[in-house]
Amino acid sequence: MPEAFIVEAVRTAGGRRNGRLSGWHPVDLAAQVLDALVARTGADPALIDDVIMGCVMQGGEQALNVARNAVLASRLPESVPGTSVDRQCGSSQQALQFAAQAVMSGTQDVVIAAGVESMTRVPMGMTVALAAKAGLGNYMSPAMKARYGNVEFSQFTGAEMIARNYGLEKDALDRYALLSHQRAIAATRAGAFEREIVPVAVRMADGTEPGEMHTADEGIRYEATLESIASVKLIAEGGRCTAATASQICDGASGVMVVNERGLKALGVKPLARIHHLSVLGHDPVIMLEAPIPATQRALQKAGMKIDDIDLFEVNEAFAPVPLAWLQVTGADPERLNVNGGAIALGHPLGASGTKLMTTLVHALGQRGKRYGLQTMCEGGGMANVTIIERL
């Protein structure tokens, strides 16, 4: 069977809500990533068979097939199609897996998997809120309610359930959040992100352009201390999670170019990594965020690997209880997890996070001379994708 290779992986630096990327239309921001992938590989744009793009809030400026719109806003020819994917927070990780499946099947040779989310301009939950305001119903159907009762599908509730179920006290969550910032600070100062970040012009929400380039993740709290993190108000009374131990609202885009052997020859490039395994698993939609645990266990079994065979892990930090519970059950070495910080410090631009994490994983393996990397993330509705790559 043909194999799938990653030949380039890039991302924008994350932007805070109403921050340095907030003036960018998400379509144009995504186009910057598409152009960067082509420029860095030297690929003939006409050889790209498809663009598959993850995006969660597909409304407003991200409506009507944001992937195709990004192609039309880029330097790619009109002959390049595009399609948009919603697997909630795993949307662009699923885009990557769809791209890998396409080239492995031999039906396509060069595919860009990407993701975009402007959480400033298209706020989280906007599509549901607008429908409710217009009296157009709710995503919870009568059959779903009959099956699950009046239980609320809430990621906040799921995070608290995980914290309680795994005995994770607030102090442990606070300490993990601080570690995320510390690792992100160290990685930024060491230049670990320079190769993966596409510089884009700063555009503020009010339309001003100060003439600077955005090249560093805006959400990192360089002044963070355990005391400052611990002082943040609880999300729910009697709970354990706070905004400081949850992923940051973020604007951003990311992308990965995926090819098979024919694609390698056509482009004349060397691969950075090979897709070793890809899978996705559904789990309990009420606790919702626990799915990465059984998904990782099943993925390793299917790949014939053990947890210690993996050199680096990227587990999305939607909330601090998620990676901590994952560590507790899998027995993974915590020194191999999110080594350059995670979404608590760097931000979680929803539909862009899948290929964002993969971009960081690919480059971190190269910088550290390591072989295998595993990426997983919790997703709305109780799902998790797992992708294992081998650095080449």
From TrEMBL:
CDD domains: thiolase
Positions of the Thiolase N-terminal domain: 5-261
SUPFAM superfamilies in UniProt: Thiolase-like
Residue ranges of domain Thiolase C-terminal in the record: 270-391
Keyword set, alphabetical order: Acyltransferase, Transferase
InterPro entries xref list: Thiolase (IPR002155), Thiolase-like (IPR016039), Thiolase_C (IPR020617), Thiolase_CS (IPR020613), Thiolase_N (IPR020616)
Family assignment from sequence similarity: Belongs to the thiolase-like superfamily. Thiolase family.
NCBIfam families in alphabetical order: AcCoA-C-Actrans, PRK06504.1
Record's protein name: Acetyl-CoA C-acetyltransferase
Species for this entry: Variovorax robiniae
Lineage summary: Bacteria, Pseudomonadati, Pseudomonadota, Betaproteobacteria, Burkholderiales
